[in-house]
Hints:
The chain is α/β, with parallel strands linked by helices. It is 31% helix and 27% strand. It has five helices and ten strands; from the N terminus they run βββαβαβαββββαβα. Strands 3-2-1-4-5 form a five-stranded mixed sheet, sandwiched between helices. The protein has a five-stranded mixed sheet with strand order 8-7-6-9-10.
Amino acid sequence: xxxxxxxxxxxxxxxxxxxxxxxxxxxxxxxxxxxxxxxxxxxxxxxxxxxxxxxxxxxxxxxxxxxxxxxxxxxxxxxxxxxxxxxxxxxxxxxxxxxxxxxxxxxxxxxxxxxxxxxxxxxxxxxxxxxxxxxxxxxxxxxxxxxxxxxxxxxxxxxxxxxxxxxxxxxxxxxxxxxxxxxxxxxxxxxxxxxxxxxxxxxxxxxx
Length: 208
């Protein structure tokens, strides 16, 4: 049984799945209140399907890029649960989850990092392996020829300002999407996904 946690943005999500079947899934507008909301929501979801944390054999968590504080909350909760339950923890890149529904077609996934910066990754038309497509920190959103854009609603506004008549797919990944990617990562035995280090592409803060 797998628990999935996504706190990489203002829309948070958790899911409980078994054999790639959804037992329960929830998304809600958390804003920046991830730390006070995730555990109560998880408790409610577990009670709904009569599951307890020791039943989790795997825990998938969003690594970012995205909300820096939100990502830290999600990873901290995931690691704490993994230690307490002896579950295998699996980290999933947020841009991979964003591009997952377009897998098999060339696309650019983009997320706002704030302060006029964006996390951007270019996904090829052929099937790609999760965790292998690099993301960059950019001030200007660009696309390769023939690529469509996959982004959230807020980033879409910046895309439309930068690119004339872009082909846009506006979504925010479901927790179940993270679960599907985590399952593929688990089967690939890529051990670096088990370290769960946050993906932070932001610029360093300069202190005077």
